[in-house]
Amino acid sequence: MSFTLVTAFSAIGLFFGMLALFEVGRRIGLARLARDPDGVAKGAGPVEAAVFGLLGLLLAFTFSGAASRFEDRRHLIAEEANAIGTAYLRVDLLPRDAQPEIRQLFRQYVNERLGTYQKLASVAAVGATLSAGQAQQDKLWAASVTAVQRPDAAASASILLIPAMNEMFDIATTRAVALQDHPPRVIFLLLAGLSLTSAVLAGYVMCSTKVRSWFYMLLVATTMSLTLYVILDLEYPRFGLIRVDSADQTLDELLKHMQ
Known about the structure:
- There is one protein chain.
- By secondary structure, the chain is mostly helical.
- It has helices at residues 3-35, 39-89, 99-118, 126-132, 134-148, 157-179, 185-205, 214-235, 249-258.
- The longest helix has 51 residues, at 39-89.
- The two termini are 38 Å apart.
């Protein structure tokens, strides 16, 4: 099942779960109201405030972290494009007859980098897909090291080209780590659990009204489920609806410039 469907079903499940627990909380409150008419209003306030406050705080931190990591991943794509472009320009320091092969390997490397992220089908496939690009790195590195060691190479070739390629490969590793950098799953479970708990408490408090407040219930359930959906989508920007694919245009333009 695709990631989009999983997150969508999770959000829908949370939505209907909260609606159901609103009713459960209301029924519990009605039972309490029948025994102690004043007890519902007096006892629920502090507990409701504590749970909703904790939920709001956790939502704020989780959403802020997801948005920050989303932007970081976009910036890393631009940094990688800059690093590759710098290393590619320094190929001019190599002997002329060695340059065509190195430049072709650079083009293949950029094409591989684009394909690595655009063809990710699932979270489980991330490790295998990223490992496949290591062979292309090894080819490019071996050819470049051989070229800079030639007697007719510029004296500054090894000083300028090799560090640039090191930086290029380091950013590739950083991107791979950033792609899998997410909060522990228990955080998302805690968010869902607190959302459901808050629904029970809200239904409990609303028992004092004779008519169910469907507007309030639908509004809270929709807001919480959509917020959780957006957080999950931001955390996995290669699989959902909110994506960083547009940032790949930087690498695509670099590849066209190399032709």
